Every structure is written in structure tokens, then in C-alpha cells.
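Sample pair:
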Amino acid sequence: MIDEQFKQNVDAFVDEVWEDVVADIRRLVRIRSVEDRAAAKPGIPWGPASHEALVVGLGIADRLGLDAHECEGYLGYADLIGESDKQIATIAHTDVVPEGLGWTFPPFDVSRKEGCLVGRGVLDDKGPCVLSLYAAHYFAREVQRTGKKLPYTLRCIVGNNEETSMKDLDWYLERYPMPEFAFSPDAEFPLICGEKGLYSGTFCSGKIAGGIIVELDGGTVGNAIPGRATAVVRCVASELPEADNIDIEAAGDSQALITAHGKGGHASMPAGTINAIALLVDYLLEQNLCSDEERVFLEMEHILLATTDGSSVGVASEDDKFGPLTLIGGTVRTENGCFVQTVDSRFPTSTTGESITETLSTFGAKYGCSYAEGRNVTPFYVDPELPEIRCLLDTYEEYSGREGKAFTIGGGTYARHFARGAAFGPWDPADPVPEWAGPEHGPDEAIPEASLKRALKIYIVSIARLMELEL
């Protein structure tokens, strides 16, 4: 029974272990665990740095009294064996997106400032991964103290490929049983019961680069709005006019390097961002820094990047569960004389990936570009009145004093892979943060320690209550 004494014990536990929690988060953050398929080999499918983080994460689990297993390098899990083989699971991940530009703190270390932890992964998702392991550690200590097993097996899944494709979990679910219920501490409170469809694609021009534009380069990953984009053009730098958010410098032999500075962010939440590629394209067009063929591509870019709801290219759509579609341009590159632009969309149930592909293919063809579909994953939704969901929401309400109402998002988490699952914290948008604190996938990624502490308590109490349900 979850009574006041139980909750007092949880409070004391969190205070006792907190500095160890921070130290373990730092151990993971110090590893630049960005996917590197070029360096992949058997047993290391996502590259050596990602694998190192997985090994360290499972080592933490082992030290905390869990039965840890690595699954051929794809991902891992750590169990606290219960009376039943049925599983209640958590799933977090140890891979991260690249650091990008604009950091004022070391990205691959944990800094403390104004009550926050700062570093790549403190919020997404190394910090929450450590919380999930310490939540299980609480129960491991109780089992050791009392000799009484939990009703169900508690499994902490440690993912290693969430940021790019989630192929690690596809591999896992082909070989291991589906948990009765799983939650992922990789999002926001109160609770996410649905996620938009995930879509990506690529426009490619003909071999037109090199007339006036020598090179276009912008963005770091396809699923983020780029904060920086550059162009090398055949022009004398001193002859180019100044413009807001544009830097110009000589690049030798009558060439100029033009750098546009935007405001980056996650592809699923484009509100308030400024796409640096769009700024760069508009400057090039305004100054006529392009050949006729290059201009056609830039005009396509101008239309494509003019909106973030897909309305400028004819794919806008919305429904009552998920709201409007989003569509952003993530990266632009110059490859073999061609300009290559990626797009990322999060779509509701009122459209399909196939429809988006058809429309974007037609749009690109008008400007001499081919178009290729990338990922196309259908939307995910679970009933927010499921007993397991209500259990989590009620616990959130109790600890936060705020309404526990499930909602949907445009981002994609591991939760969408489970028959009964949800994304649950650790970040609460209602919590105040300093103005300098950055978001997930952005520079100076940060989260208040108080938010993480409360999340750990919520996870422990939620797991205890899930263990009391008939599954």
C-alpha cells in the first residue's frame, strides 16, 4: 500500500542518493554518444561512442543491484525479477544528437548553474535514463531488505538508437516479449498518450552548383531547425551589403563566406524558431548571388521554408487529437554538384505519409528537383483512461499539485512501439527555468535539479502503484 510512510521513505531515498545520481548523469554526458554508422561493426551497430555510453549505462544498472544484459550492442536491459514473468518496463536512451553550435557551457560535461544541470543529454535522455535506474534501485534495496519480490518483473530498457531511427527497439521487440506496460521518461509531464506520425524526405537538385554558389551547408541533423547555415559564393566580400543575422567574410580568390544565424530547436516544436537556411536563401536571392539555375532551386527553398505548417507547399492538415502538421527544412548540403535539402514532418491522422510524398514530389518537380521519401511512421495513440495511464497521471497530480491531463505531441518517443505505453516526464513545462537554459536538441540544454528530483519520486511511486494493478 502506498501510504505517507512510503512516500516519506522515497523522499529520504532521493535525498540520500542525489549526488550519486548527478555523478552518474555526468558519467554518461561526458561520452559524445552520437550515432556513427560508418564506424559500426558486429556488436557495435551504432558506432563506438554510442556503444561506450550503453556499456556505461548498463554498468550503472549493475552497480545499483539490477541484473544487466547487453543485447548484441543494439541496446540493453536491466531487471529486478518479480514473482511474475510479466513485465512493467521503463525505457530511456543513452544516445544523443550532435551538440551543434551556440553553447556557452561545455556540451559534454555536466555544469551546475542556478539550480540547473547543463549538458547534452541532461534532459534528453541521459538524465532520465539514470533516474529510471535509480527508481529500480529503490525497489532492489527494498527487496534485499525484506526478501519479498515485486509482483511483476521490473525491466529498465536502455536504448541506444532513439535519436535517429529507433531500430534498436525494433530489433529488441522481434526477440523479446512485449511488456504489459511501459513508460518512457523522455518527454514532458503530465503524460503523452499520442504522437504524430513521423516523416522525412529529401529534395535533390540537378548538377547546378558551382555557377555562383560554390557550396551550401546548413544544419546538423534532419530533425532539428538549423541555427546556422553557410554559403560560399563567387563574389568580393567587401562589396556585399550588411544584413541582420548575416555575417560576411572573405574566403579567398574573389569568394565570400556568408553565414546566417537563426534560432534552432526541435523539429516537432518549430514555434519561436528561425530557420537559418531560410535566412541564407533570402539573402542570396535579394543580392542576386546565384546563377539562373541556382535561382530556381533557391526559389523552391524560399517557398518550402516560408512556413512550418506545410501550407506553403500544400500539405497542411490537422485533426482534433494532434492539431496541425509541422514541416521543417533540417539540413542543406552540396553533394556531387547538387544541392540536397532534407525535410522533417510530424503529421496527424487527417493525412498520410503517402499523401505528403505525392505532394512534395510534385512540388519539387516544378523546380527541377527529385524527391525521395525517408521514414514514414503512422501516428500513435492510447486511451488516456487506461488504468495504467490514470495511475501515472494521479501520481503526477499528487506531487505537482497540477492537473494530470494526458496530451499528444509531434515528437517521437519509444512509447509508440508498445501496445500499452506512454511518455512520462521528466520535464514539466510549468516549472520555471532561467532565461539562458536551453531546450533538448538545443545549445545549453538544461533542466532544474528540483524537476529531476521530483520526477524520480514520481517514478518510484508510480512503479509501486503499477505493481498493485491487475495486468
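The radius of gyration is 24 Å.
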